[in-house]
């Protein structure tokens, strides 16, 4: 599902420049002198640079300068890939003294332009720090280098009967350090909670090169302020995470899922309540697709589950996943639930299909996970990853569509679809506006309109993707001046010279 | 179980004084002028003061000056019990300008002397802020004033099919604000994780009186640094929590438990692994008692479950609790597990008893929960609440006993028992040294011995109770100089005048 195609959007790049985001003038570019120093502490294979004497070709630097969406492009002349925390520390210490900006980079799958330079900062890639340090199979505690790829860790703990507490579409490329730095949510949050709960310890290189060792494997440790929490979701602006200690839950023995068609959106909330009560601890996902999202997924062959005649008139769809310790128990619970739903006097659902085997399981998930791809096949997507009360999901989508309509923009050569889907169980709506092309007119119609809508509902302008370079101007819609002021003071403590991921998160 | 008997220990109070803990000279006592100001903004019932014109009798102030253990005694002349966040803000603003120290106080059940003044600071009690602000029965999100008592909130959400994500012995008195301020762990941590994961938002009055509104009800919100995390476990040194937004899980429909007798301590880890795998998502507690703890509990009539002949030779005991969505499923899993354990070729357990009804359920828990009381009936307890690897639980207890033995202190008129029990599932050992009386000789033999032992195992000198006034000198055994330095800088940002709970957490 993860494609690394770099679709550069000129409009987006322009919008980005026009907001005047650029590396602070107080920071310096990497020079040949710096490079000579780096070469003295790192293996040759750890250094990519267009500077002499290394003279790497540009296309070796490109993948580190361009973000996953192709919307943001940096201008780093040097990428370093240290292999140990000591090497990271030495690099950072040097950069701090020389006032060189640093962008910590994981798998570069971030969706807000946080992982590439805004100017000519140095890119410090964690890709070469990719060893598991330890795994305690009894407590389920994994300690791994920050550069370990999420999929690799998933594969590592699976035969030891554990799962990673997070899962996301980018798992084949994203790194655990990047996940922690972005406080990634993903598909298992409903079940296993956020990384603020499951990350037990971190090793971090602070912006002056000091190694902060909080790499504990303790589940409980109430000794002073919990500093590691600050790095979770700081998007590399407070330091470089070099290792992560994380709690992995026991692997479920069985998983199942069902797709449900609902006649009205209003039924989503009562349905969620019933499902939560009846499935209780085995409920692991409750995902939402509006009619448009479902139709687009089906149109583009992303999974197939329901009969066309049966879903006539359905206003939206819900995917429920269970995972638990014993297949027959879980199936019994799920079947009982479905029976109850279908036989109710005023049923909340039109119909529902339970997966009977792994391939059906995949094809039901395909409907939900395929929405992104389906939309990208239809046109250019303006993506908003917001948190709002579940009850307002439909209102938010409708209000956006109405607003575009009132601007005369709902037409085949402008906006084709306004789509809503997402992690309903977490109040996280992916509001996507699918257009024929990226244009300034559409961009202006959408912002600040959507951010103001989110603010009205006391929501979050970024549920899981973060702020990066893309949303610094929108932070104030979700955080007040007091909070932003405190954030800036905290940034000042850790990074007084502002070298760490400049221009990201805070303006 | 919660007794408010105030057992003052002179030795402990002396030890406390001899460490030179006192309110900084830069802080002022509350004067009649201040009192007049407070009286102008608060209802008369919100003010207790020995100063004129209020002239409250001392015994009205005593309960606020003395901690639960009777080890710490403050000297506040004034206690304020504001009713709104605005009142709190006005009080704090005044105190900040006048440099008056403030101790935020919840239920005053804290076990490290954090909730009472070390000198003549003002006590700000949250007791009058005790309303539920909202509850969303679909998402399970509760927003409550900080002064709500944990038991009251448990009772509030129960008929709405939810449970609080934490439970502890002090629940009849402790407040949700105090729980968050201490990052309380308790009996449900294994199942529902830590407050860093389940607290969604906070309203906090900062030390300059500013109201920080992060009282969101969003499960996901990646917009900048997660500031609220800093207040979780800060023990009132960074600000006053006035409201909490917290995720409550759906109530389990059935709970059960079993007590298991183990021939050797070495079996605990393999047993934990088997139990985790087989009970998976319904496992809700895995508690450990060593032989001494068990025998003391039985001796003092704290629950009864196992036949004497059957537990002969058992070295330790484990209590397993399940809670899940369907009784027959859960019982089946538990019975299958027991059968497997008993019929194994080399069984990990000698015997086990499953509760058959609510009263047996209580009596099995009684064995575990009654240890504290049993110990207090035997003598004076030196209590260490530490996190160490589970594999070293027995070593830690044995090493402490051996050490006391080598000092000639293991005798009926000095140390009677060294006892280990605790939340095995969380790596949290309660190491209790039960003595005939508190003496300096024993205290000196125990510290820094135990802290060094913890440090050797990279453990935590305070798993859940915090640092308070009692352990500021021991913080460095679990946190290095870099971490402590950063904590002090953070304290400096929030509370430059050092008025908020002075002398606590950081020296
Ligand atoms: C197909 C697809 C699906 C996705 N699905 C989800 C989803 O469901 N939920 C979700 O939350 N996100 C999702 N994302 C976004 C993204 O994958 C996550 O944010 C991921 O956690 C980023 O990890 P990364 O290693 O690629 O980090 P990068 O993209 O390299 O970096 C992201 C940010 O973290 C910083 N950073 C990276 N590594 C470190 C480090 N070691 N130390 C300090 N800072 C560091 C960077 O500077 C940057 O600011 C998805 C992305 C894609 C492409
Ligand atoms: C019988 C018994 C059993 C216990 N069991 C456990 C257990 O299993 N697990 C566990 O973790 N603890 C346990 N404790 C310790 C204690 O109950 C908890 O720490 C509890 O969370 C404290 O809550 P409280 O309201 O009584 O806070 P207090 O004792 O009043 O205060 C504790 C600390 O928090 C600060 N504080 C209180 N309220 C606020 C506020 N609104 N804003 C800012 N700061 C505030 C105080 O200044 C103080 O530093 C137990 C205590 C007893 C007496």
Automatic annotation (TrEMBL), chains A, B:
Lineage: Eukaryota, Fungi, Dikarya, Basidiomycota, Agaricomycotina
Domain of life according to the entry: Eukaryota
GO molecular function, one term: D-lactate dehydrogenase (cytochrome) activity
Domain FAD-binding PCMH-type as annotated: residue spans: 72-251
Family: Belongs to the FAD-binding oxidoreductase/transferase type 4 family.
Keywords of this entry: FAD, Flavoprotein, Oxidoreductase
PROSITE patterns, sorted: FAD_PCMH (PS51387)
InterPro entries assigned to the protein according to its UniProt record, in alphabetical order: FAD-bd_oxidored_4_C, FAD-bd_PCMH, FAD-bd_PCMH-like_sf, FAD-bd_PCMH_sub1, FAD-bd_PCMH_sub2, FAD-linked_Oxase-like_C, FAD-oxidored/transferase_4, Oxid_FAD_bind_N
Cofactor: FAD
Coiled coil: none
Pfam families (alphabetical): FAD-oxidase_C, FAD_binding_4
Name of the protein: FAD-binding domain-containing protein
Organism annotation: Cylindrobasidium torrendii FP15055 ss-10
GO cellular component term of the entry, any: mitochondrion
Transmembrane region(s): none
Catalytic activity: (R)-lactate + 2 Fe(III)-[cytochrome c] = 2 Fe(II)-[cytochrome c] + pyruvate + 2 H(+)
